[in-house]
């Protein structure tokens, strides 16, 4: 029923585009220069005469013709802009009947005498220069007190989802800058969610160069969609910010503050928040940073040469050292208290740019989860039900520094530092029951675990680049030092009962009571160099070398706890060291001309891993790993930037990933008696051959966009966890190599304006396929998953009066198992969403956010429908409309809960997590603005 209503709504809105009544008119004109030469791709706009708000727009064709069909019969401000020529502007008024032909309009040449006229006429709602689209923010009305995120939702060609993720011209925005400077690193949401819309003069959207291309000066063909926010003059030399405080039922409180002070060379910003309404600054990336496993994602690592080859291992991701329990929390999971404070500073002049930021966030999370997992064997299956609770505290310090000095026209130096300090404490309790197909209880297990972990991670990189006198000749070098240290202290207690007969005492009981201490130390030095020599007019020869050396150690002490004290468990305790040496020497030939960028290259890489294993630091050696691998790694890429904003990319990569030392260690870990892990010193490297291609098209005249992407991966010697499940349903995992892993991912996105500047329709869909073999009890099971997804999205915007954004998504996932087809799974996820803001009388606004989600897995008899409705009413008050008072009702239907449904390998699982449900909040927000710095004139 709901799907039918949505289809009808889409049909009605699209049909609106084509109807014509007597109140409609077509307006036509021909645009030329003073020599009567047709001007193609000139920007032409129809504006409202009262406030110059954009009504519709277009671009002239190859003959200089522009025609606006079926627009309202009313007065317009008719504006034409073309680079290098004087803008044209005229007030037009169509006759009561018939269409309107403005004839031939000539644009005059730009000269100094006309400069003042140009300044007055140039403030159009938007202008298009090549691949850059510039919006005049004041032409797109938003409610007072709105953030930049609200402003972006109203710009043609821009999409912002409910989580704040941004797409421009059909592509994901990777970076948002403020006056060309970084704002809290590279997180796009830091600026869009914290800066006020009223501070913005212009929004510029363009394809920025990659960081490596900026530093080296080499056009590598990589593009990253960038949004630059240009501040108003009043905010470039002054202060502005926002204060917000809320209180509500169920003892809910929230507060948030931001302060910004900018001038021509300096930017300073502060943000802070605190709440117990599950609005957390702790993202998945923060969690990964805490574990010390994402230092390689910080960017600008100074590695030269084409992508591919060995992926650096900065951290072993030792789960044993930093296991803090499952679940991440968030807006739909558990109950959390969250606090954060951050500062950002930018300085820039002609030669030097400096950016530094610091951010601290902490989260105190309580989770209560019930899950049901169905596992299958070659014949038959068994179920595992789990009731668990988690109390987790995490705190993270993050600091960044980037210094760039253009020593002269030939030499550039860049220094970067990234710092992470984390700590976390987790209490985890679980009650599990394993049941066979005949409903016979096999195992009952209860666990009571505690963990306290601390980590310190720092990455430093220095990059030097020298341009020679010969154009295109370049030398670049880099050096880096990385350290990743962690300490963990944990207690594991569990009671495990094993049964063979129903309604009888357990056959055996295994009690586990252990105290574990783990110390993890990792240091790495890296260096890289590249030399580029131009060969002919459009070719360049690139030679590069990469080197890395890492040494690390893990010391895990396990003590059995009894009434008489603690006794060292030598079987489970371990100490191991590892040294990893990596080198790559390669060369490539690049062709670059008129938007076409082709690269073909070959590299030879060598990787040596040495490891020593023992049960204690100074104990006898148990095993040793000493292996070296030499491989040839090819690469081939084609990037073509065509006319009219069309882009085509093709890439082939070969990646070779060595197993980690943790996977290679030949030591059994049975600290969890129901899930035992064992290393494998005979593992070989994983070889991944990948092909990806994409096509992107953006029409700046109609603001329609098309994005198509496809990637295929063929994985040999893939490292997977083989499983052996015994008669007591105890699972032993051991990593092994298997061949014939495959993945295919496709995506198609298309958006276009139904009514320009008012109504936009976006469609997206995709197909994904994965084939992953996994041995189960000695039999190779091939798990194949095919998934389809499709979703439409509407964006209706009527100035600051109404914003209405309905969307839907349908996803079907089929998982099939080769050794037991009776356990095949089909998971369906459906979501309908509506986001709306409407302005009523007396500056009173109504805001609503509705999500209706359906989770379904028929094989497990699971069908869950969750309607979530949030409503708020707010009014703008005080002088100059500086404040807002808001009443909010969250989860009106009191239905919120965390749901997870998925199938993988040889199991399918459903889970439910209790979370924050219906509550009410009253909030007050004050906008600090108008504190401009005085300018002394002489």
What topology emerges from the helices and strands here?
Blueprint: H1 2-16, E1 24-33, E2 43-47, E3 54-59, E4 65-72, E5 76-81, E6 88-92, E7 100-107, H2 115-121, E8 126-129, E9 132-136, H3 148-152, E10 158-160, E11 166-168, E12 171-172, E13 175-178, H4 188-192, E14 200-209, H5 211-216, E15 223-231, H6 233-236, E16 238-248, E17 253-262, E18 266-275, H7 284-291, E19 335-348, E20 352-376, E21 381-406, E22 411-436, E23 441-467, E24 474-498, E25 508-535, E26 539-562, E27 565-568, E28 574-593, E29 596-614, E30 621-642, E31 646-657, H8 661-664, E32 668-669, E33 675-678, E34 686-699, E35 704-716, E36 718-725, E37 731-738, E38 741-755, E39 759-776, E40 779-798, E41 802-817, E42 825-839, E43 844-857, E44 862-877, E45 883-890, E46 898-904, E47 907-913, E48 919-932
Parallel strand pairs: 1-7, 13-15, 33-37
Antiparallel strand pairs: 1-4, 2-3, 2-5, 5-6, 8-9, 9-14, 10-11, 11-12, 14-15, 16-17, 16-48, 17-18, 18-19, 19-20, 20-21, 20-47, 21-22, 22-23, 23-24, 24-25, 25-26, 26-27, 26-28, 28-29, 29-30, 30-31, 31-34, 32-33, 34-35, 35-38, 36-37, 38-39, 39-40, 40-41, 41-42, 42-43, 43-44, 44-45, 45-48, 46-47
| Backbone CA Rg | 31 Å
> Biggest β-sheet: count, sense, barrel?
26 strands, antiparallel, barrel
Mean pLDDT over all positions: 83
Query: In percent, how helical is the residue content?
Result: under 10%
Structural class: mainly beta
Tally the helices: what do you get? 8
The dominant shape is globular
Number of strands: 48
- The low-confidence runs, each spanning 5 or more residues with pLDDT under 50, are 1-21, 282-299, 309-331, 931-938
Percentage of residues in DSSP E strands: over 45%
**Terminal Cα span:** 72 Å
